[in-house]
Amino acid sequence: MIVQAFAFYLFAGILLLSALMVVTARNPVHSVLFLILSFFNSAGLFVLLGAEFIAMIMVIVYVGAVAVLFLFVVMMLDISFTDLRKGAMNYVPLGVVIGSILLFELVAIYSYWQFSPSTENNLALPGGGFEGIGNAHAIGLVIYTKYVFAFQVAGLILFVAMIGAIVLTHRTRSGVRKQKIEEQQSRKASDVVEVKKITPGTGV
Q: What is the full DSSP assignment across the chain?
């Protein structure tokens, strides 16, 4: 228990600090890097809770795809963040009001939260044949049996979206240079290299 408590406070402390740095860092690249760090620590907390499937999703999807995409976009786009920060202090009062409302709502939710009287009875019910296996195994058994049609439809929708993104990227546009692989493969050295014979002492 001591090791688990130490790991929890370690992951939670680093998560809070990295989340604070995401908001306060002046360099947007540093903000994205701190966001990746916060995702990793969130995955560590889910592992401590026994939800290794959600932890894996946090690392694969959020760190491996979403955060890396944010990093590429921030590094590739030439955005003047100095101009964006001009006049930001004018929105501080509105931000304080909205933040206070959200904080009040969170406090109200946790203050008046009550479990249903049937919660203890539901917890005492058998787990539907999932005893002794991990949650990733249990989720796989449910997805690939009861919800296999919905799972395949979701995969098909993502596949169509991926094809649409590729088609939009490779469409012909004026002013955009497109890679032509067949021309690159058939190019010879004589097509691009010119050899000139220079006699000694004459220069170029």
A: -HHHHHHHHHHHHHHHHHHHHHHH-SSHHHHHHHHHHHHHHHHHHHHHTT-HHHHHHIIIIIIIIIIHHHHHHHHHS---HHHHHTTGGGGHHHHHHHHHHHHHHHHHHHHS----TTHHHHHHS--SS-TTS-HHHHHHHHHTTTTHHHHHHHHHHHHHHHHHHHHHHTS--TT-----HHHHHH--HHHH-------TTT--
- Rounded Cα–Cα distance for residues 68 and 172 (Å): 27
Domain 1-80 has CATH 3.30.230.10: no
Q: Where are the domains of the chain?
A: 1-80, 131-168
Tell the burial category of 58 from Cβ atoms under 10 Å away from its Cβ (0-12, 13-18, 19+): buried
Would you place residue 154 in the very low, low, confident or very high pLDDT band (cuts 50, 70, 90)?
Answer: very high
CA dist 53 and 98 (Å) reads 34
How many CB atoms lie under 10 A from the CB of residue 204? Answer: 4
What is the C-alpha separation between 159 and 164, in angstroms, rounded? 9
Enter the pTM of the model. Answer: 0.59
**Tokens standing for residue 158:** 């993502």
